[in-house]
Design a protein that fits this description.
mainly alpha; two-stranded antiparallel sheet; AA-permease/SLC12A_dom; transport; transmembrane; transmembrane helix; amino acid transmembrane transporter activity
């Protein structure tokens, strides 16, 4: 902390006489913003310089613990880039949006949600997804946007936790997220086989696993911008399908069906089903189960954070994309579950039979079942085809996310150095190979006897993601405290609307903690306890705790104070990238179709 008045260690760079040069540094980062952003940034720059003389004695350096952490981060990044290669910023605004949406809407919203509808009722499903979208996903997206707009770096989920909270939290959080993402990869490619078996249940499923997994790995080997284009197309299909199903629901409920039946909310005669108990308690428990399902079915903020290091012009793209992603996902989760409860009876015999027999693909889709109830037939093959692309797209997104997580862990010294290696096109080749190796667990589904075992492991991923969300909230709360203490909250490039932070993060952190704590509540009901169910419900908690305690004692880490948190390392390099990107776009004529895309996305 004892910097001389004439110098200030900022990240890995040392600046003398923080007056005029400080203004130039701030102005250079302004080019990537629109007029309003430029104005506010200039005002913040002038304000910073006016306070420079009085603040310079106590200006926060990047020194924490026993060493200079800011220099450590910069040296790690430089060493990794020069020796092993590095990822590149090849994703655009629309890529980021569609990759995130693609990872968030899988077979669960088209097929798996039928189980929640049948067991909890339409109102419970609608309220559960609404609560989760408003009080969990929205605060997560806003927290992620604030942190990643300030510092869009590799492995931001755990690197931020390491910088702002405790290195042990970063280590544990990184591996918990990597594990959860890998389980989703296995789950989604297994889901692809289930969807394909709607057409062909004779062929050995191993061939279809090889085909879908192999295509994803090949796609992840090419440059990230081409990967983004494929995700854009496949995710567009599922968006079109979701919008079409919602529209079909509201048309048919008003009589626009072959039977001319204005059925409205006819199927809401038991809107909240009882679970384990009768009466109000039973209905509440049925409602609470939806949170556990939503924790697995809903997502997105984690992918925003993991893609931020490969997005072009991140200071502009991330806030814009994040807000639009949430609005789209909110519509799909909230309006979609409302529409589902309207069109499909929760006690429909076909739906219940499909759950009992484990029907494949669209045969078990409550959307297809609901349309058939009202005389709309012939959509099963079309829905099944798009559900297949949906499952594949979701798995593909988490192949990307898990490989980048392992790469970032290696870059930050938390995984073997071999996983730092990147091809010339920016693909972390050995990290991708490791993901491919673990993904081969999908082949366990070739034998029916292994399905239960694999399903047990995959169920663990929902708890892993809830723990990841808790880490994001804790990290954001500490990040905000560091920003307030070191530079002032007005210095942020993006802030949550209505000044709701950090209050919503505190609330959502408590909400996530309660979900994790009680996600296995049914196990403790009289006569319901089994060891396998207990492990499936709480293994993620023990796994995270073990990793945290191990790194805490092995490295003797300590909790980082707000005044010592490293919020500057790597920032100047990103500011320079932003400036170079904007300068490279000067004089370029944007085609009309691109302008249309920009308005749409």
């Amino acid at each position: 902390m004892g910097s001389a008045p004439g110098s200030w260690l900022w990240g890995a760079a040392k600046f003398d006489a923080l007056g005029y040069l400080g203004l130039q540094i701030r102005i250079r980062s302004v080019w990537s913003f629109n007029h309003e952003h430029r104005k506010s940034s200039l005002e913040r720059a002038r304000h910073s310089i006016n306070l420079a003389e009085s603040d310079i004695e106590s200006a926060p350096t990047t020194v924490t613990g026993n060493g200079q952490k800011g220099i450590q981060y910069a040296e790690i990044s430089a060493e990794a880039g020069e020796k092993y290669g590095k990822t590149v910023r090849g994703l655009t605004n629309r890529h980021m949006q569609l990759i995130t949406i693609g990872s968030s809407i899988g077979t669960g919203m088209f097929v798996g949600i039928g189980s929640a509808l049948a067991r909890s009722g339409p109102l419970s499903v609608f309220l559960g997804f609404t609560f989760f979208s408003v009080f969990m996903l929205w605060p997560l997206f806003m927290a992620a946007a604030e942190m990643c707009t300030w510092l869009p770096v590799r492995g931001s989920i755990f690197q931020f936790a390491e910088r702002y909270v405790d290195p042990a939290l970063g280590f544990a959080g990184g591996y918990v997220y990597w594990y959860g993402a890998l389980m989703l990869v296995i789950s989604d490619f297994t889901g692809c086989v289930s969807v394909i078996s709607f057409w062909d249940d004779k062929t050995n499923p191993g061939w279809y696993i090889l085909l879908t997994l192999g295509l994803s790995l090949l796609l992840n080997l090419i440059a990230v911008k081409y990967y983004g284009e494929v995700e854009f197309v496949t995710s567009s299909f599922k968006i079109i399908l979701m919008i079409s199903l919602i529209a079909a629901t509201f048309v048919t409920m008003l009589g626009g069906n072959p039977q001319h039946d204005r059925y409205g909310f006819r199927y809401w005669h038991h809107p909240m089903k009882e679970y384990l108990e009768t009466g109000s308690l039973g209905r509440f428990l049925g409602f609470w189960r939806i949170f556990i399902y939503a924790a697995f079915a809903c997502g997105g903020p984690d992918v925003v954070m993991m893609t931020s290091a490969e997005v072009q012009n991140p200071r502009v793209v991330i806030p814009r994309a994040t807000q639009k992603i949430y609005l789209r996902l909110g519509m799909f989760y909230i309006v979609g579950t409302l529409a589902l409860g309207i069109i499909c009876p929760d006690d429909d015999p076909t739906l219940l039979e499909s759950l009992d027999t484990g029907a494949s693909g669209s045969a078990a889709s409550p959307w297809v079942i609901g349309l058939r109830v009202h005389g709309v037939n012939g959509l099963a093959n079309l829905v099944n085809a798009i559900v297949l692309t949906s499952a594949w797209s979701c798995g593909n997104a988490y192949v990307y996310s898990s490989s980048r997580t392992l790469y970032a862990l290696a870059v930050n010294g938390k995984a073997p150095a071999i996983f730092k290696k990147c091809l010339s096109n920016g693909v972390p080749i050995y990290a991708l190979a490791a993901v491919a190796a673990v993904s081969c667990l999908s082949f366990l589904n070739v034998k029916t006897s292994t399905n239960t075992v694999l399903g047990w492991f995959i169920n663990l991923s929902s708890v892993s993601f809830m723990i990841t969300y808790m880490i994001i909230f804790v990290t954001y709360i500490r990040f905000r405290a560091a920003v307030v203490q070191q530079i002032g909250i007005d210095a942020l490039y993006f802030r949550t609307p209505f000044n709701l932070q950090p209050y919503v993060s505190y609330f959502s952190l408590g909400f996530a903690f309660i979900i994790v704590l009680f996600n296995g509540f049914y196990i403790f009901w009289p006569g319901a306890f089994t060891a396998s169910d207990f492990i499936a419900a709480y293994f993620g908690v023990f796994f995270f705790t073990g990793l945290f305690v191990f790194w805490k004692f092995y490295k003797k880490t300590r909790f980082i104070k707000a005044g010592e948190a490293d919020i500057f390392s790597g920032k100047q390099a990103i500011d320079d990238e932003e400036n170079e990107w904007v300068q490279s776009r000067v004089g370029i004529v944007v085609p009309g179709y691109q302008k249309a895309f920009d308005k749409l996305f």
